[in-house]
User: Which sequence fits this backbone?
């Protein structure tokens, strides 16, 4: 029987890399944004095109991040640029790369809402779950990333239930209402148009509806979805193709769709202003890529705000929640330590498996020998004695030989290790 052979380590480690609202402006973030419905295909392409063992992509209006198990993070960074047909040098100044422990801490902070533009905002948790579902669908979510994200969700739950991180948090929707209130003395006298029917628009509609606007309309590519959402707020739904002809009727426009191209351009806005006789329009574009052309903001009587513009309002509540953040960070740090311990134990799995296989081979060899002796008619007591002696000799051979061959400091270290492994009193 061959001796125990230590398996070769697999040169793969965990990385997170990407860009977010803290490192990149909106103009860059929208270039690398990946729509939810395209995540599965994109992450599949990444693992097929590069030597990546596991991968998941998180893409929101505030961030595009890739979590990978690979030997080098540059693999994913190069793929991201190639996927979006951008020079790698264009993205490089905005990208961050986080190895193992930093990547784990980052994932926990993102899930808990500590890395969001709006501190404590819960939407990111749903977006991370979308990323996980996409990776699962593409078959790119292995044991390490599965454990990372499940732990991230558990940490987020603990943070939200044991701290006040989400209490009185200013959401993007609430910030939009506050901005509108600066333009119009009373939102109750204004007509509001929502473009899109997703989760963000639903949140915005909830906040604006609470102000009792004079009129509330939802425009969407699918009339059924628009009508269903609008009816919840005593509003009406229209098809998106009707929006250009009716834009001038609205004082407040909030847009957030998954369109890859702007759906409201400067020419359309100019026609609406002319029909309104220059009465101002307040616009909020929460989409990435943008729904409303940036040039619209240059028009007189148009007040256009993007997700980046909301950050000033959002930051006003940061100090009030400082103690909650400290509590949350303490929880996360503890959980990071536990996860890293799990990661370290996984490194020993191949060795443990090989050790057990070695022991099993020895057992099978001695059992086979004992069965042959019994079949021959040998004394069962002597056969059992020989079996136990043979098994003991085989299992003790390697550590005994290692101790005999070692010298000096190595022998002392091995002696201490063997004593610890086998609970030997010296």
Assistant:
């Amino acid at each position: 029987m061959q001796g125990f052979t230590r398996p070769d380590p697999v040169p793969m480690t965990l990385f997170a890399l990407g860009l977010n609202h803290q490192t990149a402006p909106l103009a860059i973030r929208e270039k690398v944004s990946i729509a939810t419905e395209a995540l599965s295909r994109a992450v599949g392409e990444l693992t097929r095109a590069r030597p990546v063992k596991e991968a998941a992509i998180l893409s929101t209006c505030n961030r595009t991040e890739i979590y990978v198990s690979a030997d080098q993070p540059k693999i994913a960074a190069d793929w991201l640029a190639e996927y979006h047909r951008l020079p790698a040098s264009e993205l490089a100044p905005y990208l961050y790369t986080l190895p193992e422990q930093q990547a784990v801490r980052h994932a926990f902070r993102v899930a808990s809402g500590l890395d969001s533009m709006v501190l404590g905002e819960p939407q990111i948790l749903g977006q991370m779950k979308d990323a996980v579902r996409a990776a699962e669908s593409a078959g790119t979510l292995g044991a390490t990333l599965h454990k990372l994200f499940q732990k991230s969700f558990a940490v987020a739950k603990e943070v939200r239930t044991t701290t006040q991180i989400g209490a009185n948090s200013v959401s993007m929707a609430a910030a939009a209402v506050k901005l509108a209130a600066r333009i119009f003395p009373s939102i109750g006298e204004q007509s509001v148009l929502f473009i899109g029917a997703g989760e963000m628009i639903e949140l915005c509609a909830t906040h604006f509806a609470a102000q009792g606007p004079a009129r509330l309309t939802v425009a969407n590519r699918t009339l059924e979805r628009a009508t269903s959402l609008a009816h919840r707020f005593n509003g009406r739904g229209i098809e998106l193709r009707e929006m250009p002809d009716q834009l001038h009727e609205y004082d407040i426009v909030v847009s957030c769709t998954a369109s890859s191209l702007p759906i409201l351009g400067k020419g359309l806005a100019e026609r609406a202003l002319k029909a309104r006789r220059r009465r101002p329009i307040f616009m909020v574009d929460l989409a990435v890529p943008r729904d409303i052309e940036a040039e619209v903001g240059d028009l007189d009587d148009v007040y256009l705000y993007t997700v980046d513009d909301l950050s000033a309002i959002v930051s006003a509540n940061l100090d009030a929640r400082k103690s909650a953040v400290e509590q949350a960070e303490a929880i996360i740090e503890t959980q990071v330590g536990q996860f890293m311990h799990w990661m370290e134990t996984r490194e020993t799995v191949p060795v443990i498996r090989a050790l057990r296989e070695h022991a099993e081979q020895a057992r099978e060899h001695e059992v086979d020998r004992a069965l042959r002796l019994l079949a021959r008619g040998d004394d069962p007591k002597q056969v059992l004695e020989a079996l136990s002696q043979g098994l003991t000799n085989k299992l003790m051979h390697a550590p005994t030989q290692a101790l005999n061959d070692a010298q000096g400091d190595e022998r002392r270290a091995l002696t201490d290790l063997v004593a610890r492994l086998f609970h030997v009193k010296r």
User: Anything to note?
Assistant: Confidence is low (pLDDT under 50) at residues 6-11. Strands lie at 13-20, 52-59, 63-70, 96-99, 191-195, 215-220, 236-239, 252-255, 281-285, 302-306. The radius of gyration is 31 Å. The domain at 172-308 is CATH 3.40.50.720 (Rossmann fold).
